[in-house]
Amino acid sequence: xxxxxVDGTYELFRAYxxxxxxxxxxxxxxxxxxTLVASLLVLLRGAETPHVGVAFDHVxxxxxxxxxxGYKTGEGIDPLLFxxxxxxxxxxxxxxxxxWPMVEFEADDAMxxxxxxxxxxxxxxxxxxxxxxxxxxxxxxxxxxxxxDRMRRTIxxxxxxxxxxxxxxxxxxxxxxxxxxTADGIPGIKGWGARSAAxxxxxxxxxxxxxxxxxxxxxxxxxxARLAQSLNENRVAAKLYRELATLRLDAPLGVDVDGLAWxxxxxxxxxxxxxxxxxxxxxxxxxxxxxxxxxxxx
Length: 298
Known about the structure:
about 300 residues; 13 helices
């Protein structure tokens, strides 16, 4: 079997900005969720014996905000998009998909935890992390755990992670700690860029293994003295940034691998969703995806 682990928050953002707006009769913007539902149906139609989990950031803030004041918040999110967060979770549940609305943790943590769970099950042939978020590159393992960009239809396995970032998956949190990640509010270490970080981490693996004295570095890097000074002055910060970038593997999932199997939609919830989205054909569309049979009762 294959597991599809979906970043529902990313999918909603993409749906909102790439789809068509739609205000329903109650004056509520639902266009992003309409497009999200259509996208999830495409995934279900294309997956043989679907095993799917969809993770959402129920709130933008997480435990990481208590560790670092500069970590990402919900500030600046379009209110019309933010207003669809809850409905997106309702839609995922109505489709009958395992849905993880994260509060203390983030959606990426749920995906990482589910991937770790799947790796322990010999029946799982491949785990597809459906997101282009570079944080998830740390979870990639050979060709068994891969990142899948559903829009571009591209796969990022371990070899391609190394090709893209210049470091192995295990070093991705260290890479983000040095380079920074503006999407998550991680500033990085002054002076360090993608090339210098990749060059050092490809040899030393982790931030703490990079020698303080640049004359002992076994790889030539432009501006080595300057980079070493900057890192040495900010090693505590670098370790904090790495902690922020490291995905947790203990997010509460509430299911095992078998629990991710799709058994069709929830009829009552789906019918209510069709009304809210003003899509009278939604129940029939989902039934068509579900092996062309009507949704099961209950």
